[in-house]
Amino acid sequence: MSEFLLGRRSQLWILGLVAISALIAANVAWLFPTLEEMDTGAYLLYRAVGVDARNQIASFLNSHEFALKNAADIIAQGTGRETELISRLMKENPPFESVALLGLDGVERFKTHRFLLTTPADLRNRSRDELFKAVSRGEIYRGPALISGISEPLITIALPLRRESGFSAIVADINLKFLLDVVRGITTGDRGVAYIIDRDGYIIAHPNSSLVFGRVNVLERKIITATLSGREADTRNSDFIYKNEKGEDIFAVALPFELTNWALVVEAPKSVALASSRRILSAALISFGLEIVLLLLLIWNYFNLIKTATLFYSERNQREAILNSLSDGVVEYNDKSEIVLMNPKAEELLNVKFKDIRGLAISPDIAKTNPKMKGLVELMYPALAPYASQTREIVGTLAKTMEVHISSPELKLLVTITQVVEESGRVRGFLKILHDVSRERLLGRMKSEFVSIAAHQLRTPLSAIKWTLQLLLDGDAGALSKEQGDFLAKGYEINERMIKLVNDLLSAARIEEGRFGYEFAEVNLSEFLENAIAGYADIAQRKEITFSFKDKAGKLSPIYADAEKLSLAFNNLLDNAVKYTAGSGKIAVTLSREGNFATVSVADTGVGIPTEENKRVFSKFFRASNVIRMETEGTGLGLFIAKNIIRRHGGDISFVSKVGNGTTFTLALPLKKELVPKEEKPELEEFLGSV
């Protein structure tokens, strides 16, 4: 390979020199003249936009001055219908906010306002104003633009009247909202703007209204002072270059508006206005290197092609080896349901051969002509399978999981579904991972049956022992000494623990088998909670624990629930709160309402649950590591039973906890009967949650 590269090195240098020479010659011939033409073109474009805007503004002001002139001519005729004339003038000229007639002494004799009711007290004496002086000289007065901060800019225009009319001038305040419409309607690229500056250097119209009402003054820019003096200016002259508030160099064209001594500026960041020139320049500069890089890449890619091909075949063989060794089946198909990939385990589970169905579109009807495909069809279309659970999202991933029972062959599969996404983000197809849980479910059912049988066999002798001990403790078999009574009391307490353990085991087994047995009826939740809390009054008093109950829900309608099972769930929470809260602690039960659910929170100041163990709280036989050291009794089934009882009621249970700061469990129970599931199903939560 090194000899091959050395033999072609001279050719590489020659190709590079030829490319560089051709590039230099081509760019010298056209680059610089083109850049100059692009700058001139940008100037002409911005100036044309400015001229158009200036013409619109001039037309606007001239049309309204003409309306005032017509009114002045009619008033000069002395018709005595000034009030009617002014009203018509306001109606025909919506930008007029107010119109007034000045007497010969400069005092307003008549005034009407578009939005305000004018009274004699509102009539102003304008005899000392520049306006009155101008009309007294027979001149048209055009005032400065006024910004009130609460409305669009205004300009006052006054036309002199003949003295024989009895008035000195007709005065109009004109709303300059039209100026804002003009500058906002101008488009010169993504960041180009146009704005108008009055004779004092203040911005009076800008797409960004905050610059208008904020009274921003730009008189320090030389291009502005030059334009206000009556001449055009643009930033091709280096004396007029300025920067915006972001520090960007600006390309601008400024035109004078002689009628009111304003300036109109059309500007944009130079990087935007001259973007074409910069792109051409950048392209010319980059092209020098691209020719060389292209040649190097061609040679480099020639050698890498062989390496890539070798790597591709190696990775493909490795992937096939991994898929072939998996203990779970893998099936990949595209959006047309065509089989793309299938590993040997999937072939074994579904009793089909990949070579026979590769590229075949699997439709629901295909099993009718080929019965061997029935299992695959039921996998692809779970609605056709004898049983399919709802899909559940796997936390932290885009994958989902569900249980599907197929009939041919007869298997129970746990199916993980995910998308096959290309690097571009396009979904190429779908992947299903098949885990056979038939044997696991059989073993689980056998375990549950064993636990159920064993618990039933234990409950009878334990109950007999309980009644025997109770008989002895009550003295029915004769008086006992204090020492004998203490021994029997301890035995009675231990027997009670065993009975509770047996009952919990039976409850857990029945939940898993879907035959716990619920009898629903209407339950007053507030009274239910008060009765449950009352049952813990004695033990709370002994441990000096403060119990509190707050009903924030107001008057709730009865919930639809099994009071006995709900009591078992709630008592498990209260039992844990009392058991793991030290003396002088607090337990607060709060009832509230959130939408269609009643929420019950049980907050204690106990030892809390370690954060790393939170995921296992509702699993069977779980007991937190910190409570095992302080409290040896407990089955670890209480929260498992509680969660499944609440789920059966159509609700949910959650918690927050911090070691040393206590735990708060929150139950949510539906207020509407239709939200309660209609039937009890075997509990699959614990197995699916561990996947």
* Tally of distinct domains: 5
**Strand tally, please?**
24
**Mind telling me the CATH class of the largest domain?**
Alpha Beta
Q: Might you state the CATH topology name of the largest domain?
A: Heat Shock Protein 90
Give the helix level as a range of percent: 40-55%
The CATH superfamily of the largest domain is Histidine kinase-like ATPase, C-terminal domain
Q: Which band does the percent of strand residues land in?
A: 15-25%
Class based on secondary structure composition and strand pairing: alpha+beta
Question: Biggest β-sheet: count, sense, barrel?
Answer: 7 strands, antiparallel
CATH architecture annotation name of the largest domain:
2-Layer Sandwich
Number of helices: 21
Polypeptide structure, described:
With 691 residues, the protein is of the alpha+beta class. The chain has five domains: 77-175, Beta-Lactamase (2-Layer Sandwich); 179-274, PAS domain (Beta-Lactamase, 2-Layer Sandwich), CATH 3.30.450.20; 326-436, PAS domain (Beta-Lactamase); 442-512; 516-689, Heat Shock Protein 90. Strands 11, 12, 13, 14, 15, 16 and 17 form a seven-stranded antiparallel β-sheet that branches. Strands 2-1-5-4-3 form a five-stranded antiparallel β-sheet. A hairpin with a 6-residue loop joins strand 4 and strand 5.
What structural keywords apply?
691 residues; elongated; single chain; disordered N terminus; five-stranded antiparallel sheet; seven-stranded antiparallel sheet; Beta-Lactamase; 5 domains; phosphoprotein; disordered C terminus; 24 strands; alpha+beta
What is the structure about, briefly put?
With 691 residues, the chain is an alpha+beta fold.
